[in-house]
Prior knowledge:
Layout: H1 3-8, E1 21-25, E2 29-35, H2 55-77, E3 86-96, E4 105-116, E5 119-127, E6 133-144
Antiparallel strand pairs: 1-2, 2-4, 3-6, 4-5, 5-6
Amino acid sequence: MTSAEIISYLPYSKPFLFVDEIVSVDEHEIVGNYTYGPDLLFYAGHFKGNPVTPGVILTETMSQIGVVCLGIYILKQSGSAMTNIKIALTSNAIDFFKPVLPGEQVVVKSVKEYFRFNKLKCKVEMYNEANELVCRGQISGMMKI
């Protein structure tokens, strides 16, 4: 599957789509990126005069790339029909180390811990443009088609 094909199956659209490109993917891991445009709505109030990307948005980006895109790839490779994907985040535990500023690109790297009974659990890391660790943790989600 190409990057564009994986992204086309995502159940999100702008302004809630936080995936620009899938750089590499196989049944065990995925790498993708996203650039936070400086005009995104949440920067207006987070924080006044000193905007940073909210942790919940960083977590969502990690989830979209590291769990949902990887899950789509795994399901498609298994021959599943991809007509009506439903996805639910089931758990996450994320540690944050660096802020992400407006206009920054991040890279998300995710490694599958397991996929069974349509539940995918991954170790996910996010890096900034300087290749510094921004955040990392575990994220799980259920996928239904």
